[in-house]
Each structure stands twice: as structure tokens, then as C-alpha cells.
Design goal:
globular, four-stranded mixed sheet, alpha/beta
């Protein structure tokens, strides 16, 4: 199988510009809202209660403009397995100072896996989990960059 063409040779309509948003469904809206806004510090863009669906929709924004949509739905099924279920494996967020980020998360009682270094990128990274166990990877800058 041939490798995919590089972005520079893709036709103009297929040149992706970046990630617009990622959608997350929480089992407890208030708990998830607190985690994403107070613990992770994401900015609330818009919050809606959709009565016809008995569902909250919270649009959150990261500093680079990427958004996370946080939904609640009554009786959502649990994640099939952790973390190798088909579908979205995890959410990865860039951080400027991984050690400082982990210290701040610890003040909120958020535990992190041991920090590792990606053998391909050289970037340090670790994983935390949101209140429903969704894996969130935190990726720091490469040392010396």
C-alpha cells in the first residue's frame, strides 16, 4: 500500500487547516463542567440546555482556538473499554510546562501517570483522566526547544 500524499500535494479542497473541536459526553454534567473549566481552565464560549434532548451542550475553548464540546445525555452507555476501544482513543493537549501543569493538577486531586518521553518526537508526556475516565494526554515541549 502506498503512503498517503503529503499535505502539500493534496488538492486545495483537501488541505485541512487544523482541528476545530472534539466532542466529549460526560455522565455527570456538573462534575465534568467543573473539571474542564476549573481544573483544566478552559474558557466557556457558549452553554445551552436543550430541553427536547434533556441535554446540556457546553462549548469550551483552548488558547489556540480549538474547542471542546461537552455534552450530557440521559443514560449514555459507558465507554466499552479503556483505552483500546475502537474510536477516539484519547484527547491530547499541548502544555507549555509539563511539571508546572502536573503540580497544578495535583492541587485538584488529579493524578497523572509517570512522565515518559516519546521516542519519536522527544516530547515528554503523561496521561490523566477526566471524571468519566476519558484518557487525556498532556504533551510538553521537547527539552532544549
Amino acid at each position: 500500500m502506498a503512503p498517503p500524499p503529503s499535505p502539500s500535494v493534496l488538492p486545495a479542497p483537501l488541505r485541512l487547516a487544523g482541528v476545530h473541536h472534539v466532542a466529549v459526553i460526560g455522565s455527570d454534567y456538573a462534575r465534568s463542567r467543573r473539571f474542564y473549566t476549573e481544573v483544566l481552565g478552559l474558557t466557556v464560549v457558549h452553554e445551552t440546555w436543550r430541553a427536547e434532548r434533556q441535554s446540556h451542550k457546553l462549548d469550551l475553548q483552548l488558547p489556540d482556538g480549538t474547542q471542546i464540546e461537552l455534552f450530557s445525555f440521559p443514560e449514555s452507555p459507558p465507554r466499552p473499554s479503556y483505552p483500546e476501544a475502537c474510536g477516539l482513543r484519547h484527547l491530547a493537549l499541548r502544555v507549555g510546562d509539563l511539571a508546572a501543569c502536573l503540580r497544578a493538577l495535583a492541587t485538584h486531586g488529579v493524578a497523572a501517570e509517570p512522565v515518559r518521553v516519546d521516542p519519536f518526537t522527544g516530547c515528554p508526556f503523561t496521561f490523566i483522566a477526566d471524571p468519566d475516565g476519558l484518557p487525556i494526554e498532556l504533551v510538553g515541549p521537547r527539552p532544549g526547544c
